[in-house]
Write a structure and sequence with these properties.
With 573 residues, the chain is mainly beta. It has three domains: 31-291, Beta-galactosidase, Chain A, domain 5 (Distorted Sandwich), CATH 2.70.98.10; 301-401, Immunoglobulin-like, CATH 2.60.40.10; 406-572, Sandwich (Jelly Rolls), CATH 2.60.120.260. The chain contains three helices and 42 strands. It has a nine-stranded antiparallel beta sheet, covered by helices on one side. A six-stranded antiparallel beta sheet has the order 1-2-3-4-5-6, with no helix packed on it. Strands 8-7-13-24-23 form a five-stranded antiparallel beta sheet, with no helix packed on it. It is globular. The structure holds 2-acetamido-2-deoxy-beta-D-glucopyranose (6 copies). Residues 133, 255-257 line the site of one 2-acetamido-2-deoxy-beta-D-glucopyranose. One 2-acetamido-2-deoxy-beta-D-glucopyranose binds at residues 133, 255-257. Pfam families: CBM-like (PF14683), fn3_3 (PF14686). Keywords: Carbohydrate metabolism, Lyase, Polysaccharide degradation, Secreted, Signal. It is found in: Secreted. Residues 1-18 form the signal peptide.
Length: 573
């Protein structure tokens, strides 16, 4: 055996002895070189990377090492840094005339790099064999902070804060520091809604490193799934580019077991000169090409469509409803589902939807209001056992969605859409550490006079939020009333009592069964986290003709913890 083994020999220049026609330059080929002792080099004529047992380092691109001497490089890990995958072998699993597919094997599964000869970057995917039950599973780059000083997501762009700023600040909670001027530094500022991403990554004047994930069916969770995307590593200063392919950063308890063969990706890891417009162009190209015809995987290629029309039981079309194709007959919320493949869409004005390129299988179809003309709808729609067959469209025709009688509504504050949108300070950015602390302790909302912008996106401070409403009569037909305190998120540590005309009828406080803490308000989420619709029976006798009130009285508080409001509704039943 030689010092190293060249798995794919670089093509030799094609020389012709005949008359010098067009001089053809040697086309640089993609390669895998085995250096022995669990060290390999992969790449092509444009870039290459040295892969060790766990970490991919020495990312050579545009004449420099873009990981550098101090950053960690590329790796795959689950459930935090304790479990970085360890590669036991590497091989070219497949190849074509201008590409190779390099497979790195770990006991949990295989990580692939599909390297085209002329591509700055590579397509990557992971095939599960034996991952444990997990919440977090990610691939990532920890890169040179001089080459990549800036971060970019669809909602945030700019310099990553310098490591020196962290050193000068005081740690106040999980990855969050307070600076001398009172402002905060936190990696969670760089979170975003994963299913809204186009291209994101880290970049500088010379180079950019991007993730472009056109298909998003391998992610867990629904439309409102948020994740950390890029950040400054607070211990080492690395520029971090995350690919959270299964994540729980804003959820309560998403934890899944995966079947042997579950595949994440392929997505594109893309290198360029740092240009965002070029990365955007590449996103458009990849989005058009998805699902990738070059990916010769039977299950991946086996896809169909689902269409239907959602009509509310009061005759209205479910205009703009959020539509989710997920697990069939599941006890989990749409946010918590994550073992398989998931698709999201929105219905049109007529309540019609079509979801294409769905992997064949049996799904549950879920829908809920997303504001607009159905912002009053407190119920969700579910239909199980929806079968998607290869190259066929499953026409579900008209789907009847049972809603409560609108004429029985006493009041509603805010759209029932699983988010805090519309309330004061829910935006413009959906993330800001500590914004919830600025919400008032006491607030009075007068039905008929106040508007949703007088209510705040989140509640944490001691005091009472009072809803005043008048009743002209108590309907004979009503047996009781029902109060919905619909929460867009909830982080335990703050408690409130719910009172109707000074009588306690319920509470908002952590509960192992009914209200499990999610990691949203304290990580600066201001629009969504994990949605929970709490419902309370209100005795008819508690309500009276004339002025009435509902109080949400915070009796215990923990800094930055509390809940995000979706909607408050009272109706007769
Ligand atoms: C093999 O790699 C290990 C760990 O990186 C190192 O300690 C050892 O010296 C290497 N052995 C050889 C023969 O290069
Ligand atoms: C990796 O790239 C560097 C810089 O372009 C080059 O010098 C080196 O030979 C490449 N390594 C391999 C194995 O091709
Ligand atoms: C980059 O990383 C180095 C090495 O850890 C660190 O000393 C430096 O402060 C970091 N730079 C920035 C801008 O954070
Ligand atoms: C995953 O599998 C383990 C072992 O088979 C089982 O105990 C656990 O309940 C499963 N978890 C989930 C979330 O399905
Ligand atoms: C809220 O109102 C109560 C009772 O009027 C008062 O004691 C408390 O100081 C108020 N809290 C704030 C934060 O204004
Ligand atoms: C809060 O409400 C839940 C659900 O109704 C109930 O089980 C629990 O006992 C209540 N806790 C308190 C402290 O009132």
């Amino acid at each position: 055996m030689g010092l190293f083994h060249i798995a794919t020999v670089a093509a030799l220049a094609v020389c012709s002895t005949a008359a010098p026609a067009e001089p053809r330059a040697a086309k640089p080929k993609s390669f895998l070189k085995d250096l022995g002792n669990s060290t390999w080099i992969i790449g092509n004529g444009i870039w290459n990377m040295t892969q060790g047992r766990q970490y991919g380092v020495k990312l050579m691109y545009k004449g420099k090492d873009r990981v550098g001497p101090t950053a960690t490089g590329h790796y795959v890990s689950y459930n935090g840094a304790a479990s970085d995958l360890s590669w036991t072998s590497a091989a070219i699993a497949d190849s074509g005339k201008d590409w190779i597919n390099v497979k790195f094997t770990a006991k949990e599964g295989d990580f692939h790099w599909v390297i085209y000869d002329d591509l700055a970057g590579a397509y990557q995917y992971f095939v599960n064999h034996a991952l444990p039950t997990l919440g977090e599973f990610r691939t990532l780059w920890r890169l040179s902070n001089t080459s990549f000083p800036n971060g970019h997501t669809n909602i945030k762009d700019g310099a990553l804060p310098a490591l020196s700023e962290y050193a000068a600040a005081t740690n106040v909670q999980d990855e969050t520091w307070q600076k001398a001027d009172g402002t905060f530094l936190t990696k969670y500022d760089w979170a975003a809604f994963v299913r809204e991403q186009t291209y994101y990554g880290v970049y500088g004047d010379e180079v950019g490193s991007w993730y472009i994930n056109p298909g998003k069916d391998y992610y867990n969770g629904d439309h409102l799934k948020q994740e950390l995307m890029v950040h400054r590593e607070s211990k080492t200063g690395d520029a971090v580019q995350l690919n959270m392919i299964h994540g729980t950063h804003y959820l309560a308890r998403s934890s899944d077991n995966f079947t042997d063969g579950k595949t994440w990706g392929p997505w594109l890891w893309y290198l360029n000169d740092g240009s965002k417009s070029d990365a955007k162009k590449r996103w458009k190209k990849e989005d058009k090409a998805w699902p990738y015809s070059w990916f010769k995987d039977t299950a991946y290629q086996s896809r169909g469509s689902v269409s239907g029309k959602l009509i509310l039981s009061d005759g209205r079309p479910a205009a703009g409803a959020a539509v989710f194709l997920g697990d069939s007959n599941s006890a989990l919320s749409t946010a918590d589902q994550g073992k398989d493949y998931y698709y999201t869409a929105y219905a049109d004005k007529q309540g019609k939807f079509e979801i294409d390129d769905v992997r064949t299988g049996t799904y549950g179809l879920y829908a809920w209001g997303n504001g607009g003309s159905i912002a009053d709808v407190t119920t969700s729609f579910v239909k199980n056992d929806v079968v998607v067959a290869k190259e066929k469209t499953t026409h579900l025709k008209t789907l009847d969605w049972t809603v409560t009688d609108k004429s029985k509504r006493i009041f509603q504050i805010g759209d029932f859409d699983r988010t805090s949108r519309g309330f004061a300070h829910s935006g413009p950015t959906p993330f800001e550490h500590g914004r919830i602390s600025n919400a008032p302790g006491n607030l009075t909302y007068t039905v008929g006079e106040s508007s949703p912008s007088d209510w705040y996106f989140g509640q944490t401070n001691l005091g009472t939020w009072s809803i005043k409403f008048g009743l002209e009569s108590i309907p004979e037909s009503a047996t009781a009333a029902k109060l919905y305190t619909s929460l867009a998120g909830f982080s335990q540590g703050t408690k409130s009592n719910i009172l109707v005309n000074d009588k306690k009828i319920g509470n908002i406080s952590s509960n192992a069964v009914l209200l499990v803490s999610s990691q949203d308000t304290y990580r600066g989420a201001t629009q969504a986290g994990e949605w929970r619709n709490l419902q309370w029976d209100v005795n008819k006798e508690l309500l009276k003709v004339g002025e009435n009130k509902v109080d949400i009285a915070v009796i215990e508080t923990t800094r930055w913890r509390g809940w995000l409001w979706d909607s408050v509704v009272l109706e007769w039943v």
